[in-house]
# Entry
Amino acid sequence: MDMGKMMRDLQKMQSKMLKAQNDLKAQSFDAEAGGGMVKVALNGQGVLTMIKINPEVVDKDDVEALEDLIMAAFNAAVKKKDDATKSSISDITGGMKIPGLM
# Structure
């Protein structure tokens, strides 16, 4: 086994990982719930950057429904971000499962 080649390959992988991390940070992950009544966006770091609530869904007698829609939209955006992260890592590692990366 050529240790020099293995080290170069690892350095290339590390460089690709840093690029992928920076690319993910720059992305926005949008999701909605209730047929678009609640919309949210997360950045690549998982920070909520936008929330839009259609006034028609606001009912002072049913706050729980609005809370459920917000949670559903947020969780859908988190899943999109997580899926993009896993896909990016899988592309770099060739599908190898490396402990600590996923």
About this structure: The mean pLDDT is 89. The helical segments are 3-26, 63-93. DSSP finds two helices and three strands in the chain. The first strand starts at residue 28 and ends at 33.
